[in-house]
Structures are given as structure tokens and as C-alpha cells.
Write a structure and sequence with these properties.
Blueprint (H helix, E strand, L loop, with lengths): L6 E5 L2 H10 L3 E6 L7 E6 L2 E7 H8 L12 E4 L3 H10 L3 E9 L3 E7 L5 E7 L11
Parallel strand pairs: 1-4, 5-8
Antiparallel strand pairs: 2-3, 3-4, 6-7, 7-8
Length: 136
């Protein structure tokens, strides 16, 4: 019935938001219109898709009343080194929300905000797989 799910983030500045997500490793896959100021850009990182939609276009074209700022949704990004990723992202201008901390004894988590205030969780699994030698 359904396929290819993705989350749409509403933004007052689609290009600014897309540029930010591009700096995190996302690649643009779709843009409307092709020329001029975009009202929508889709991006992908691995199999994780997000769209960035213009607040004004969403309101004018679709009759919705999107909220363009605040903590409406969280983007979760897994990494092998939360501390290094947090340092890189914040040194590139992302607002730090929460510095890296251990959670549940198995995850290292940090929080930053995208240009529209959406929280981004940077998370690392601290548990290491232990390989036991011998016959199975």
C-alpha cells in the first residue's frame, strides 16, 4: 500500500536548510523548481530521506499551517564517534543543545539544532561486540 517513506521539515529558508544537511553528508535528490528559488528539496543519507519544504509554499499551495521553528521533530544520525561529530558540526555553526553524554550505559548521545531549530540527535553505540574464539 505504501512505500518510500520520508519526513518533511518545514523551513523559512529551504536553501539554508538544505546546505546545512548537505554539510552532514546528505545528497540532494529532488528540487522544485529546477531553476530559481526552490520551494522543496529532497535529500538522502544512506536510506534515510528527508524533504525540506518552504513554509510559504506549504501554506499557499496546500492550505496547511506549518510551524517553521522549534522542536517539532528530531533527526537521528548514528555515528562511530559522537564526540568528534558533535565538535565538527558545532564548529561548523550548528547550535549545540546538549554536549555528549552517556545514556543507558550503552549509548553516547549529543544534541544540536538545525538552522530552523529542529533537534538533531548524534548517537553512538558504546557496546562492542565480543568475539569468542572456538567452535560453534
Amino acid at each position: 500500500m505504501f512505500r518510500n517513506p520520508q519526513v518533511i521539515l518545514f523551513s523559512s529558508d529551504v536553501v539554508r536548510a538544505a546546505t546545512f544537511y548537505k554539510s552532514l553528508g546528505f545528497t540532494e535528490t529532488f528540487r522544485v523548481p529546477n531553476d530559481g528559488e526552490p520551494i522543496h528539496i529532497d535529500m538522502v543519507l544512506d536510506d534515510y530521506k528527508i524533504g525540506i519544504a518552504s513554509v510559504s509554499s506549504t501554506r499557499d499551495d496546500h492550505g496547511l499551517a506549518p510551524v517553521a521553528h522549534g522542536q517539532r521533530v528530531a533527526v537521528i544520525l548514528w555515528t562511530d564517534d559522537t564526540a568528534a561529530a558533535f565538535e565538527t558540526v558545532t564548529s561548523n555553526g550548528a547550535k549545540a543543545l546538549v554536549s555528549p553524554y552517556e545514556w543507558l550505559g550503552r549509548l553516547l548521545i549529543a544534541w544540536v539544532a538545525d538552522p530552523d531549530g529542529n533537534p538533531i540527535q548524534i548517537v553512538q553505540n558504546l557496546r562492542r561486540c565480543t568475539v569468542i574464539s572456538g567452535n560453534r
